[in-house]
Amino acid sequence: MQPSIAAENLASFLAEIRALATYLQYERQPFQKEEDWPSGARSVLLILGRSGAQTVPEIARERNTSRQNIQIVVNRLKRAGLADLEINPAHKRSALVRLTERGKVLLSHLEQAESSLHESMLSKLSPEELASTMKCLRKIRQLLVGDVNGHGSEKHTPRDAAPPVLPEEAPSEEEGFPVNLL
Question: CB-side exposure of 114: number of CA atoms within 13 Å?
Fold first, then answer.
């Protein structure tokens, strides 16, 4: 069965989102050597800068990832002197992660650079284009997580579909290629 033009357009739109997300995730790191840093380092810095000290599980919930992934990021940020751990009065075994002064300075530079980039982009995008795109992206996300209009509709995930048949020469996760591309 041939997909409809609307289905092809949606697939192209989602592919563009993935490409943009990948670019933002991997190309916009604030560090000199990207290979030394996990992709979540920037977002952990932003979370700590915005919300203050948090536990690893709290950061993991906000990022929708595993505690183990966040712990790797936190350990690297700590070794670089960008984050530190402090005693959590609410929980004896789960320390609070906070930005160090060096981490705050790096985050400030990152935010300034991004603000400059955003201002440049805004000169080429109308408020209507931004509003329409945000509305569309929000609705697609809600459809995917099953929360349209606050109703508990059925959640749709890629796992609902039959797995794709991969050619024999497709790289595996063991060969260093990520299985989850977004």
Answer: 13
